[in-house]
Batch of 4 targets.
Target 1
Amino acid sequence: MTDTAPDTSAARQPRPAAGHRLDVTHVDGDVYEVDVRGHRLLVDQPVDAGGTDIAPTPVELFAASLATCVAFYAGRYLRRHGLPREGLRVRSEFTMATDRPARVDSVRVVVVPPPELPARRYAAMLAVVSHCTVHNTLHEPPGVRIEVET
């Protein structure tokens, strides 16, 4: 009789992800409405790019997504340690690539902690916010498939 290790391949398989959906609908010109679970927001383009500049661009929302995810994780860190979130701010800056394809070249995210956060906790908070879901996704990009419905 031979000893065999238990089959753990199923345990290594990722769990099926819950599906999420959002819908984007043309409004006018370069303006689109995004519906996310009944929450609605608009996107547009700046005037110099042919839009009316009534809303952020999709790329600005991309950078905002990262910044707000970092802010959320920072806020949760503060709450978990009994520290106030008042005064917490996150700033995001990005540059576009100068070559093709069109894309964001770099993003800088700066966390401005509340004044009550002791300096000895900065490194721990940085470690936490560096693992926010959006940041993790940028480091482990998802598969993306774009289709035209027929």
Target 2
Amino acid sequence: MFVQRFSATRRGARLARRLATHRLDRWHLPYGSRASDTVTLVVAELAANAVLHGRVPGRDFELRLTYDRSAGLVRVEVSDTHPARPQPPEAAPEPAPEPAADAEGGRGLLLVAAVADRWGVAERTGPGKTVWAECPVHDSGDACPVRR
């Protein structure tokens, strides 16, 4: 298990992504493997959301990675102190409008849903929430292919 708190800044999100990639490599999910790239993408998107949408001035966000080698699963959890909760695309009351082709944002959770086996939002002790995603990985370090 890897747990670390980061400042709720772009720099903190970048550091979370880099340290997650390093930890995955130490868990024998090497840099550049499909497993590492998939989990790193999920960490990057959830950390960016914590910084951009979950930021509360003066509060950090927390990254927790858990690797269950026997199950072939990496669980990513990002906790922040903002009370707003993202809605999974399938739970939205109406289809969300597609982001404009040249938009710089608006696709993060769609990416997470595409590459993770499953994801969701959970309560946490104290204020805020935890957004989590589970990424299946093979022994070879390759992630399962993107679901279609």
Target 3
Amino acid sequence: MSRTTSTLPPKQPPTLTPKQVATQVLRLAQAVPHLAAAYTQALARWLGDPVLRLAGRPIITECYRSPERQNELYAQGRTKPGPVVTYKRGGESNHNQGPPTPALDVAFLLADGSVSWSGLLLSKFARLMKYADARVRWGGDWVRFKDRPHFEVPTTKKGGVGRG
């Protein structure tokens, strides 16, 4: 029995360009401190795992979001093309608080440079986020609208704890 060896180069984890690193730093700085700390800890655990880091690199796609940007997203799937991605109008989302804001959205940079919102990868990252800080809420756990890229921590608004 002969063994064949692969001539393919070993798979490398995705890396960020200097511009992407700067963007990530700016977005993380928009988060409330305990959410930023949970993300940083979860990211370190992810990148420290030899299997997970090959699957993709977590990136923050949005943190603070202006009410105008929120309204653009709200229009998607309604008056603009694309799938519905939010049920919150400008001023109603936790992304609209701050900065610092109690919400951030995550996706994964893949080795080929594309971005993925894989539910499987997000669920694995959610476990790490919740392990890092028990206050973290993951949108994938919500009953009515699964918002898998979304992570948030409770906030006190007028009238009590808010969500969205």
Target 4
Amino acid sequence: MTPMPSSSSSSSSSSADIERRARRRAGAKMGWFIHAFVYVVVNVGLVALAASRGHNWAVYPLMGWGLGLLIHGAVVWLIAPGGGLYDQLLERERRALGGGDRR
């Protein structure tokens, strides 16, 4: 028979879990900000290079990489746990299953 965990034990594991999840979410969001910063810096350079030679080829990397940045942002900010859309869908499913608000 295993002993029941004390309330302080479950509280500390809950705090550790919350800390781990918070760090993971913050890391994902920081990763998106870095991605967006690099996108802007590199593409400003590409646009300047293309414009200096009288061409407009820089629009293709802007669109391709921009789509990747958009998908990355959707995953980080909307779909991933902690994102607004994910939380709304999770809450809707809880209500549909009759579970109310459990976290």
